[in-house]
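Quick one: structure tokens for this chain, please?
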Amino acid sequence: MAENVFDILLERGFIRQTTHEEEIRKLLAEEKVTFYIGFDPTADSLHVGHFMQVIVMMWMQKFGHTPIVLVGGGTTMVGDPSGRTDMRNMMSREEILANGKRFVKLFERFLEFGEIAPDGKPKEPGKAILSNNADWLLDLNYVDFIRDIGRHFSVNSMLRAECFRSRMEKGLSFLEFNYMLMQSYDFLELYKRHGCKMQFGGDDQWSNILFGTDLIRRELGEQAYGMTFALLTTSEGKKMGKTQAGALWLDANKTSPYDFYQYWRNVEDEDVKTCLSMLTFLPMEEVNKLSALKDSEINHAKEILAFEVTKLVHGEAEATKAQDAARSLFGAPGEGGGGGMDNVPTFELERARLSGEGLGLVTLMRETGLVTSNGEGFRAIEQGGVMLGDEKVTDAKKLMTEADFPGGSVIIKKGKKTYHRVMLV
């Protein structure tokens, strides 16, 4: 294992851009550094894109560095234009506050937090700090802010930043234009409050990070540092973490542990190494060995990937249940399938709904979440992609009756990767 966390992050493919590469490497080797990553609570759960940043924080904490989790209770009121083609929907303070509280519960699964001493440092070195920029942003005097902070920002330089330049044709509101000032001010505040020397973020945050380090230099005459990390993408450059139902959430109530497991079990062969490197703590020697497997053997690597990531997010017990369920459905050779059917995603259907002519299969598929609309369900059947048990469905207008539920249940399969059990009650 490398002695410097910088080299580990580099080896595993995280690091994209740095403000001062050699200085950062030396600093992380010789000192215990306080750093921060910001998370705007625009939804009621973290998703897998956030988890990339969480993994970085976990690596840093393993090496004794102090993470600051900054919940963007203030910045979310404005909305980050980075990586977006349109303006975010405005959210109420109450909604942002509620989402932020849910974020905190998830962060507590991954990081060790501690109490803060009067000097702004953790009472126990290396313990994470939880902060919320609503504490200093929501009560700012706007005129004072513009006089004291705004004078350091060149509009010409800001307009050259990718996050703004890409939006100029479609339009950029003055509201969003303020976001960079607010995020830069966050870095300044955290530097003064906690001695935070580094800001990390996704590669789309590069411009915001640069302006933050520059503000600290101009305001305090001190050196701060920034580093960005790769976004989780497929070998074709597409963002990972999108499912048929939307984002891949870390909250079990929004994405079940089984569906979470199945997502990673079904990644493309070419993406196994990236996922093992960035989303697990397996040694790189093992990552390289697993990702070098070919043909059907690569499925073993995918199963390890799915188990490890699900274990990190949902715990070992849930990962084991998801794995057992998947093996039961897919009949993995030598794995003794069948024992995990109770963990397969299950929809309970009232027997009375099958009376008369029966219940439309497409309607049932929509209600279980296998499809998002009737149209999608009809197309899936017409294209030969739906099975009841081991029988392919050829009638898009099929009506389900009790005869379709031998033993009181049936497995509906959509495509090669999506399964759902329907039980009569």
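The longest strand covers residues 418-424.
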